[in-house]
Amino acid sequence: MRFSLSLFCLLLALANTGCKTAVTHVRWQHESPRSANEVALLRTQRSAFTGFTFVRTINGEPLLKEDVRDRVREIALLPGKYELKVAWVVPTPNGVAQSLADIPVSFVAEAGKVYQIRASSVEKTFGQSMRLALVGGVVGWTAWIVETNSGAVVGGVPRETPLKWHEK
After folding, report:
1. Which has fewest Cβ within 10 Å: 57, 106, 107, 121?
2. Domain of 129?
């Protein structure tokens, strides 16, 4: 009985700590916390179909350590102008592919607003799609930021055309 209780406590402690903690919200400010209407909220794209975006840097400073920043879902920002470096991980038939280069996206954050980073491949010919399928990785993509209430693009360059059959 004593052994099973010790084992249970050990398993409970390991389950609560885990190897990687789920980071979901980051406050990007070096001041005391502010109320929700005094900050802007930036959400990352999280979809099994369209992929995951993550922010590598904000105004030239790394967001977090390499091993956790891809799990950030929301970033609280003070009002102001920001220059982001965005990366994209997209599902493929063989697993996932990560963008080979980051895309710079700048925008002005306003207090009380919610923004979302979006990403998509740029339009490719059939031959370009075949080359990428053979080589791997993600090249030829774009990222942009939208204000979620209005849907207005506030930074970056969105894809103008829907995905074609050979780009999916």
Report:
1. 106
2. 21-159
Show the beta-strand stretches assigned E in 61-112.
61-62, 74-77, 80-92, 95-98, 103-109
| Residue 116, token pair as written in the block | 């979302």
Task: Kindly state whether residue 46 falls inside one of the protein's structural domains.
Answer: yes
Question: How would you label 7-30 residue by residue, b for 16+ Cβ within 10 Å and e otherwise?
Answer: eeeeeeeeeeeeeeeebeebebee
Residue with tokens 């080359």: 131
Does any domain span residue 68? yes
Amino acid at 1: M
Alpha-carbon distance 107 to 59, whole Å? Answer: 11
This prediction's pTM: 0.71
Residue 45 — φ and ψ, nearest 5°? -75, 125
Q: What's the one-letter identity of residue 14?
A: L
CA distance 68 to 36: 24
- Give the pLDDT means over successive 10-residue stretches in the chain (168 positions): 44 39 54 74 85 89 66 87 91 78 94 93 72 64 93 90 61
Decide the pairing of beta strands 103-109 and 153-156: unpaired
Name the 3-class secondary structure at 94. coil
